C-alpha cells in the first residue's frame, strides 16, 4: 500500500464567526491525483487555505496530517519547506522581484540548494523549455502585468522547480481560455510523478479532460458528500450539483 501523504480528519474551519468547513475527511496516498469539485461557496478554497495555514482561516477542530506528521498548527513556511505546495486561484504580483531571483530564493529554502548559479540557471532553463515558456519570461517581475495564462504557467514553473510531494491546485483553470488551459494542463502532466500527489480543486470538467484524476470528491456546504472514480466527473457535467446539494440537505 502506498504511503499516506495527506490525511484530513473531521476538519472544521471558521472565518470569523462563520463556520465554513463542517467536518472534512480525506485521505490521499502517494502517487494519487484527487479532484475536489463543488459549486461556488461550498468551501473548496477554504480547505486549501486551511491546509496551508492561512491566518484568516481558523481550524476549530480536526487534524491535518502530512506523511504521518501533525501539521495542523505548523507555520505555512515550514509546510512549504517540507514539500506542500499551493497554486493560488489568484496569484499575486511581486513588483521588483524577477522570476529568476524569486525561484532561486524559494528553491534554496525548499530544497536547500547551495550550488553554483550556473547549475540553477541550467535547471530553470530546462524547466521552462519543458513548459514551452519563452526564456525572457525569467527576467520579468513575478506576476507583474502577467496575463491570466502567464500567471498560471508561472505557478507551474514554481512547482517544477520546487518539486513538492503534495501539490494543491486551487482553481488553476480559473480565467484561462482553451489554449491556455491546454498548455497549463500539459505542464501539470509533465511535472507529476508517482512520488508526489495532487489535490485539484475545480468547478468544471474541462481541466479534468486533460489531467485525469484517480479519485473525485463532490464538495457541498463544507463537506465531502460523495466520492468515487472519474465517472463522477461525467455525472456532474450532465446533472450538475443539484442532486448532491439535496443529498447534503437531507443528511444534515
CATH C-level class is: Alpha Beta
Sheet/helix structural class:
alpha/beta
Return the average pLDDT rounded to an integer: 90
Helix content: 25-40%
Could you name the ranges where pLDDT drops below 50 across 5 or more consecutive residues? none
What is the annotated CATH architecture?
Answer: 3-Layer(aba) Sandwich
What fraction strand?
25-35%
Radius of gyration: 18 Å
Topology pattern, helix = H, strand = E = EEEHEEHEEHHEHEHEEEHH
* Strand ordering within the main sheet: 6-9-10-3-11-12
| Main sheet specs | 6 strands, mixed
Describe the structure.
- The protein is of the alpha/beta class and 252 residues long.
- The protein has a single domain, classed as 3-Layer(aba) Sandwich (Rossmann fold), CATH 3.40.50.300.
- The protein is built from eight helices and twelve strands.
- It has helices at 44-52, 76-82, 99-111, 117-130, 148-162, 178-191, 231-239, 242-251, and strands at 4-15, 18-29, 33-37, 58-66, 69-70, 84-87, 94-98, 141-142, 166-170, 197-202, 215-220, 223-228.
- The strands form three sheets. The protein has a six-stranded mixed β-sheet with strand order 6-9-10-3-11-12, sandwiched between helices. Strands 2-1-4-5 form a four-stranded antiparallel β-sheet, covered by helices on one side.
- A hairpin with a 2-residue loop joins strand 4 and strand 5 (69-70).
- Helix 3 runs parallel beside helix 5.
- The longest helix has 15 residues, at 148-162.
- The chain is globular.
